[in-house]
Automatic annotation (TrEMBL):
SUPFAM superfamilies: PDZ domain-like, Trypsin-like serine proteases. It comes from Deinococcus xinjiangensis. One of its GO terms (biological process) is proteolysis. It holds the Pfam family Trypsin_2. One of its GO terms (molecular function) is peptidase activity. Keywords: Hydrolase, Protease. Belongs to the peptidase S1C family. Residues 323-425 form the PDZ domain. This is Serine protease HtrA. InterPro entries: Chloro_Bact_Ser_Proteases, PDZ, PDZ_sf, Peptidase_S1_PA, Peptidase_S1_PA_chymotrypsin, Peptidase_S1C. Coiled coil: none annotated. PROSITE patterns: PDZ.
């Protein structure tokens, strides 16, 4: 949904998108589809034609390319670590004719997704949207099934992180009454920081509910920035993602993306699907996205210690000093949203984050950042002047709170970031250390 601001002294005409499961990239409307929800697959739905097989020379028939053998070896060794996830959620519908049938109707919504074992204790990493259900409130029932077994066993959430679109689940019991321990086959976690475009990728999951499927491709990009995860308002937080052309479809969500060594390099999360935009059914267009595994590795200890609760992205403790009034309420915006005349009047740079306030006890306050002292109302918004202006983080320009979130998303306790700040017209660098308080 696009929201416009009128041109005036203060806020110039801008628009922004509010992504949920469908999200926008730049001016081109891309449909980034969360893949965890189920899809109905009927017998005879896919037409099958008569196939013709050409006879191969004996030498070719028995030969296997080196890459082909590598793929088969990886699949044979690590596919047993893949987990098929099914969910159920009770949803009450507001039927306009409900009074005829005794009031609101309750339905069971079912979904499917994927996950994979990360350790011998049976912890399973997946996407948040796989176990959150369509409403985002959380599935009432989670079941898992592993390769080589027809038995579905219940599972429980150990920790969930909506902002990262990640969740950690575990079999409710391991042993005779639950999952047999022999089926727990962890897949090794790799290093997404050393990925290069062109590297081989293998995606595992359950596209359209077709469990334990495999596809192959390459890394198309290592620095694609897209909205991943869900903030408190439902908006995605811009993060770096691994782009791949390996076929990924609904049901692949939460499944692993592996390299040629069999190491997990990403967690499949979204696809670009023009067909989903026009026809409502998402399908692979050769552009898929995975959460870098290093983000998950940094987050894993916090998920394991969450006790079934929420894990959030680190906070600096900064409140934006520039707010635009929209039909959806007050929205914090960057300085580029101001007209040139307004920036000149208030002696502000062309882009950046005006610090309106800092929260006591959080990293920004401890590093000495200053909030504003004078609040002014104007047509279209409000500004709080007199505080610091953040122009970059670790050398990367910023122009909104979401830019700070994107830079912090893969950080852990003890990490530091350097903010480039304007204070009274003078440039300075401020080092901010992320302590325990930043992660609460």
């Amino acid at each position: 949904m696009s929201v416009g601001f009128p041109t005036c002294l203060g806020i110039k005409a801008i628009s922004y998108s509010t992504p949920m499961k469908g999200r926008s990239i730049s001016a081109v409307i891309l449909v980034l589809v969360g893949l965890g929800l189920g899809a109905s697959l009927l017998q005879g739905q896919v037409p099958v034609g008569r196939a013709t097989t050409a006879a191969l020379p004996k030498a070719e028939a028995g030969a296997k390319l080196e890459n082909e053998q590598n793929t088969m070896d990886i699949v044979q060794r690590y596919e047993p670590g893949l987990v098929f996830i099914s969910t159920e959620q009770q949803v009450t519908t507001a039927d306009p004719f409900g009074w005829m049938f005794g009031g609101p109707q309750t339905q069971i919504q079912r979904g499917v997704g994927s996950g994979f074992f990360v350790n011998s204790a049976g912890d399973i990493l997946t996407n948040f949207h796989v176990v959150a259900g369509e409403s985002g409130a959380g599935a009432s029932k989670i079941s898992i099934r592993v390769m080589g077994s027809t038995k579905a066993v219940p599972a429980k959430v150990i920790g969930y992180a909506p902002q990262y679109d990640l969740a950690l689940i575990r079999p409710s019991s391991i042993g005779a009454d639950g999952l047999d321990k022999k089926f727990i086959k962890p897949i090794p976690l790799g290093n997404s920081d050393i990925l290069k475009a062109g590297q081989k990728t293998i995606a595992m999951g359950a596209p359209f509910g077709l469990d334990f499927s495999v596809s192959e491709g390459i890394v198309s990009s290592v620095s694609r920035r897209i909205p991943i995860g869900f903030s408190g308002s439902g908006q995605g937080i811009t993060q770096k993602a691994v782009q791949t052309d390996a076929a990924i479809n609904p049901g692949n969500s939460g499944g692993p993306l592996l390299d040629s060594g069999g190491n997990v390099i990403g967690i499949n999360t979204q696809i670009f699907s023009p067909s989903g935009q026009s026809g409502g059914m998402a399908q692979s267009a050769g552009v898929g996205f995975a959460i870098p595994v290093n983000v998950a590795k940094n987050l894993l200890p916090r998920l394991q210690a969450a006790g079934g609760g929420l894990v959030t992205a680190p906070r600096l403790g900064i409140e934006a000093g520039l707010v635009a009034q929209t039909g959806q309420g007050a929205v914090p915006v960057g300085l580029s949203s101001l007209t040139p005349e307004a920036r000149q009047t208030w002696k502000l740079p062309d882009a950046g984050i005006l610090v309106g306030a800092v929260t006591k006890g959080l990293p920004a306050a401890q590093a000495g950042l200053r909030g504003g002292t004078q609040t002014q109302q104007f047509r279209g918004g409000q500004i709080r002047l007199g505080g610091d202006v953040i122009t970059a983080i670790n050398g990367q320009p910023v122009d909104g709170i979401e830019d700070l979130q994107a830079a912090l998303i893969d950080k852990k306790v003890g990490d530091s970031v350097t903010l480039q700040v304007l204070r009274d017209g003078q440039k300075r660098d401020v080092k901010v250390t992320l302590d325990q308080a930043a992660f609460k």
